[in-house]
Specification:
- By secondary structure, the protein is an alpha/beta fold.
- The protein has a single domain, classed as HUPs (Rossmann fold).
- Helices cover 33% and strands 13% of the residues.
- A three-stranded antiparallel sheet has the order 3-4-7.
- 39% of the residues are buried.
- The mean pLDDT is 93.
């Protein structure tokens, strides 16, 4: 794998007419990190004459809020990022949508049922505190298959307030990232995959794998903070017999301390920047400069399609 210094992929390796997605979680307001991801998504879609799907990843009912979904749709519109499918108006209507995860859990249930039929699903009552206690006792986080409570061996009954895991095994998955190059990693880096939590919610890994397949995504573009999630998602997709997309993990917008941005960082929040009088062009230019795509300067929405063409200015 490369050192992560590259910011533009080799155009010859990208799928022609790539179908990609912008998939925010409405757990807070958009910030410059989301804008940087949007630059890659819409920019590479334009380069490949592709299509952008907008997906609302609100599987976490405890943290997601309708007001955040409303705000992110407003901010995308203000920035000029228009998805090919679905329309912003369709999502604003509040009608059930296949592009909003909370609107249809039957597909996730069906995927888990297939895994259950293969004898791979088991109930697990391990909480985060149990994992933390194991790590404190052993001086390292849990890694590899299973869980600290040996739940698969205990054959717990499935019940409310009990999670569901999928037995992974010792497999490694090879990844040929379109920006970072080839590498491999364990599918069970931090234990068997949790697919339903103890609150009855389907988890990120399950939802994103199922949704990428049903939405026809063949190019997943996301930040490097999700790089290590890729082996387990590839493993899960292979187990479910789903198409394998290409992956591109781009640099992150970081604070001066080197840590990545969060939705609580008001200084880089799109709504805060709007309130401070910054223009959409300023926000787009700041996001592009923060990850090395161009020199600091405002840029209009039309310039996004040229970011990866060899003529970014």
């Amino acid at each position: 794998m490369s050192d992560g210094s590259a910011v533009r992929p080799d155009p010859g390796r990208l799928p022609h007419r790539a179908v990609t997605r912008f998939a925010p979680a409405p757990t807070g307001y958009l910030h410059l990190g989301h804008v940087a991801n949007a630059l890659y998504v819409w920019g590479l879609s334009a380069l490949t004459e592709g299509q952008v799907i907008l997906r609302i990843e609100d599987h976490d009912r405890q943290r997601c809020r309708p007001r955040f979904e409303t705000a992110l749709l407003e901010d995308l519109d203000w920035l000029g990022f228009t998805p090919d499918v679905p329309s912003l108006a369709a999502l604003r209507s509040g009608h059930p949508s296949p592009y909003r995860q909370s609107d249809d859990g039957s597909l996730y249930e069906a995927a888990v049922e297939r895994l259950r039929d293969a004898g791979l699903v088991y109930a697990c009552d391990c909480s985060r505190s149990i994992f933390a206690a194991w790590a404190q006792t052993h001086g390292r986080p849990w890694s590899g298959p299973g869980c600290p409570g040996r739940c698969r061996e205990r054959r717990l009954a499935e019940a409310p307030a009990v999670g569901l895991r999928v037995a992974i095994g010792e497999d490694e998955e090879a990844v040929d990232d379109l920006l970072l190059g080839p590498w491999s990693g364990p599918a069970a880096a931090d234990g068997d995959l949790l697919v339903r939590d103890r609150h009855g919610q389907w988890t990120y890994h399950l939802c994103v794998v199922v949704d990428d397949a049903r939405h026809g995504i063949d190019l997943v573009i996301r930040g490097q903070d999700l790089l290590e999630a890729t082996p387990r998602q590839l493993w899960l997709g292979r187990l479910l017999g789903l198409p394998r997309p290409a992956y591109l993990h781009h640099p992150l917008v970081r604070k001066p301390t080197g840590t990545k941005l969060s939705k609580s960082d008001g200084a880089t929040g799109v709504r805060d920047l709007r309130a401070a009088g910054r223009s959409a062009a300023w926000v787009l230019g700041a996001a592009a400069a923060s990850i090395g795509l161009r020199e600091p300067a405002p840029m209009d929405r039309e310039a996004v399609s040229r970011l990866f063409s060899g003529h970014p200015d």
